[in-house]
Design brief:
The chain is α+β, with helices and mostly antiparallel strands. The chain has 2 domains: about 60 residues; about 100 residues, TATA-Binding Protein (2-Layer Sandwich), CATH 3.30.310.80. Helix content is about 55%, strand content about 15%.
Length: about 190
């Protein structure tokens, strides 16, 4: 939601969404990620080691809890690392890409939060039955390509690693629609 602080040139160069933030914001984002990812693996490890050292009456349950929490922690860690990754999609001319994004956002019923020469911020429509509240798609325009990133924000603009699959689904949807739109323009000529 802090889309006004996106450094588009550096983001395009690094293929990663880079924001102009204070050091305090970066530290708080890091601490939030640590607090989300590590508690369950640490607690399950302590419980598992305790069962090994003591009588081991509940070793099966604690080992299952340990394995599940390590798997979930690993998935959250992977999701957190890739939250800012940009996906490059080949397009047409820069003006055609911008117009295609505007057309697609109208077609898909997505709200345009910001649109200029360098980027567009799209907000997918939300329904009461969906789990994607706070979702935004950042589209950066780079010569003949676009770079996209879908992120779900929680309370106080905290990025949610729990919506990784939904975010990738939206990126795929936009990619397929965008490529079809570019092909349609190419076939017109």
């Amino acid at each position: 939601m802090r889309h006004d602080k996106i450094d588009t040139e550096i983001s395009i160069e690094r293929n990663k969404l880079i924001r102009k933030t204070w050091l305090v914001e970066t530290v708080l984002d890091f601490l939030t990620s640590v607090m989300i990812i590590f508690p369950f693996p640490i607690i399950s490890t302590v419980l598992f080691v305790d069962q090994i050292k003591n009588d081991g009456l509940y070793i099966v349950g604690s080992s299952m809890f340990f394995i599940v929490s390590i798997v979930i922690g690993s998935l959250l860690f992977y999701s957190t690392i890739n939250l800012n990754k940009l996906k490059r999609i080949q397009g047409g001319l820069k003006k055609q890409n911008r117009n295609s994004i505007l057309t697609l956002s109208e077609k898909l019923g997505w709200e345009i939060l910001r649109h200029n020469q360098k980027m567009a911020i799209l907000k997918p429509s939300w329904s009461i039955a969906s789990l994607d509240w706070g979702q935004q798609i950042v589209v950066l325009f780079d010569r003949q390509d676009i770079l996209i990133n879908s992120t779900t924000y929680g309370l106080h603009d905290i990025k949610s690693p729990f919506h990784w699959f939904v975010n990738r689904k939206n990126e795929k949807k936009l990619k397929l629609q965008f490529q079809a739109e570019i092909e349609r323009h190419a076939n017109k000529k």
